[in-house]
Design brief:
54% of the residues lie in helices and 11% in strands. The chain is built from eight helices and five strands. It has a five-stranded parallel sheet with strand order 2-3-1-4-5, sandwiched between helices. Helix 3 packs antiparallel against helix 4. The two termini are 30 Å apart.
């Protein structure tokens, strides 16, 4: 199979990082992840979102554009944990909706975003992971990350509604939607097998297989 660039999208707690890691291991893809430890704005952002939202979004925009281009130019196939498109259509939109990103800053950000993504090569596949909000809340609670302590069910529902809007209009590449509430591709190899098969079928243009019920 020729070189591929895959993006993994989905709400917080949907399983993006776990799937990215395991697809990288299974298929030999290069992997890339969200910038957290080297992000100069993230800690300040969680202290004062209104002050630092614009700075954070601009940082993520540059980081993800660089990441997208680097992996596209790598001769190996690659998979990226979260897409550049989610920054604008999900998270910047949410910050604007909640009053943490002013309208003028949001419009300025979107103008730069539109210019940047116009020059990016299109991915081969977007893998969209989806799970009910109560499941996401339970996963977030279990992994107990300090920066996620303030995430509420209402916030996840807001993000989910924006994901629904985005998916309705997304047409850059084929989309494979995977419901992850009954899947455990971390601890059950057979579940990872199913996901890998679905990805390969989608990339080759075959019909999607149907998931077994009840996680069996």
């Amino acid at each position: 199979m020729s070189k591929r660039l895959l993006l993994v999208a989905g709400n917080i707690g949907s399983g993006k990082t776990s799937l990215t890691e395991r697809i990288g291991e299974r298929l030999g893809y290069r992997t890339a992840y969200e910038s957290v430890s080297d992000n100069p704005y993230l800690s300040d952002f969680y202290i004062d979102m209104k002050k630092w939202s614009f700075h954070l979004q601009v940082f993520f925009l540059g980081h993800r554009a660089e990441q997208h281009l680097e992996l596209w130019n790598d001769p190996r196939s690659a998979i990226i944990d979260r897409s550049i498109y989610e920054d604008a259509y999900i998270f910047a939109r949410a910050l604007n909706h909640m009053g943490n990103l002013s309208e003028i800053d949001y419009l300025s950000y979107k103008k730069v975003f539109d210019l940047i993504v116009k020059g990016l090569p299109e991915p081969d596949l977007l893998v969209y992971l989806k799970a009910p909000v109560p499941v996401l809340m339970e996963r977030i609670r279990k992994r107990a990350r300090n920066m996620e302590t303030g995430i509420s069910q209402d916030y996840l529902l807001l993000l989910e509604s924006f994901y629904d809007d985005w998916m309705t209009n997304f047409d850059l590449c084929p989309v494979l939607t995977i419901k992850t509430d009954d899947l455990d591709f971390v601890h059950r190899p057979q579940h990872l097998d199913i996901v890998v098969d679905r990805i390969q079928d989608k990339l080759s243009g075959k019909e999607e297989v149907i998931f077994p019920k009840n996680g069996e």
